[in-house]
Amino acid sequence: MKVIDHLRQADRTLFSFEILPPLKGKDIRSIYEGIDPLLEHRPSFINVTYHREEVIYKDRGHGLLQKVRLRKRPGTIGICATIKAKYNIDTVPHLICGGFSREDTEDALIEINFLGLDNVLALRGDAIKNEPHFIPERDGHPHAVDLIRQIGALNKGKYLHDEEQEAAPTDLCIGAACYPEKHPEALNLNVDIAYLKQKVEAGAEYLVTQMFFDNSKYFAFVEQCRVAGITVPIIPGLKPITTRNHIAFLPKTFRVDLPDDLANALVQCRTDAEVKQVGVEWCVAQSRELIAAKVPCLHYYTMGRSDAVRSIIGQLF
Ligand code: FAD
C-alpha cells in the first residue's frame, strides 16, 4: 500500500521508522533484530536508506595510490522486499541521484516495481567525500526534482528508450525530503521552499523532514510551506539523542540546532546512559506535542538503534 493512502486513511497520528541496511558482511538477521522490538506498536511503513559508494585511496607502494570505490551498506531494495514479505509491512526504499545514470535509475525503479513495492523516497544524496559539491553522474540527475520527474514519467509508462513499445506504467507513490532549518546548501529558507514546491509539482505526494529538536521550527516551516502553496502532508522526522557522540555529530552533520533547554541538559551528562535518558525524554515530549497538533505521522530515525525508539513509542501509543 502507498504511504499516501496510509496517511489518507488514518484516523490518528501514524508511526513509521527508518533503518539502515546492515554493514557488508552482516546478514538479514541484524535487520530483523532492529525491527522486531518495534512491531508491537504497528508501524505503518518502514524506510530503508540508500548509501552511496565512498571513494578511498589505497597505498600500493612506490608512491602509487589506487582509487577504490567502496559501498559499505548495499542492498536497499532487496531489504525492502524482504521486510515486506516477512512482516507484511509496507516499505519505502530510498533512491538517490548520486552515482546513478538515468538508465541505472530506471533499472532500480523497474526492480522496485517488479518486487511489488509501492513507494519510493526520491533524494539527491550528498557529495561524496573529497568532492567540493554534489556532482551528478554523467547522464544522471542533478536534483531530486529531476529524479521525481523520471519516476513520474515511468508512472505514465514512459520508459527511457522504449518509445515504440507498449510498456506498463508503474504506480509508485513518491515521497521527498524537506528541511525545517533549510537545506545546508540553500541560499535561504524561502529559496529552499521554492525548490521544494517544484518537487511537489513534479509529483512528490508527501514530504518527510530532516530531524529537528525544536517543534516550533517544524510548525513555522509547515506554515511557510502552506503559504507558499505546498499542500501535501509534511511528516516530521525525529531522532532521539542517545550517545555523547551524537551531541557534536548530529548538529554538525545535519546542520540542525539544539534548543537551549536540551543543550543545557546534555552538557551536564557524564555518561551515554544519562544522555540517552535526556534524549529519550526530549523526544517523547516532542512527539506528544506533535501528536496533539495532529501531525499525520511520526517518523523516527533509528540510525541502527531501535531500543530508544521502542522506549519512546511505548510511552506514546
Ligand atoms: P534536492 O531537493 O535536490 O535539494 C538539494 C539542494 O539543492 C537544496 O539546497 C535545494 O534548495 C537545492 N535545489 C533543489 N532543487 C533545485 C533546482 N532545481 N535548482 C537549483 N537548486 C535546487 N541521503 C542519502 O544519501 N541516502 C538516504 O537514504 C537519505 N535519506 C534521507 C531522508 C530524509 C528524510 C532526508 C531529509 C534526507 C535524506 N538524505 C539521504 C540526505 C539528502 O540526500 C541530502 O540532504 C541531500 O544533500 C539533499 O537531498 P534532497 O533530496 O533534499 O535534494
Question: Can you tell me about this structure?
Answer:
This protein has 317 residues and is an alpha/beta fold. It has a single domain, classed as TIM Barrel (Alpha-Beta Barrel). It contains eleven helices and ten strands. It has helices at 3-9, 29-35, 76-87, 102-114, 144-155, 189-202, 215-227, 244-254, 260-267, 272-292, 306-314, and strands at residues 14-19, 45-48, 54-59, 65-70, 90-96, 119-123, 173-178, 206-211, 234-238, 297-301. The strands form two sheets. An eight-stranded parallel β-barrel has the order 1-2-5-6-7-8-9-10, surrounded by seven helices. A two-stranded antiparallel sheet has the order 3-4. Helix 4 (102-114) links the parallel strand 5 (90-96) and strand 6. The longest helix has 21 residues, at 272-292. The radius of gyration is 20 Å and the shape is globular. The two termini are 22 Å apart. The model has no long low-confidence stretch (mean pLDDT 95). The structure holds flavin-adenine dinucleotide. Residues 49-50, 52, 94, 96, 123-126, 143-145, 177, 183, 185-186, 192, 195, 198-199, 208, 210, 237 line the site of flavin-adenine dinucleotide.
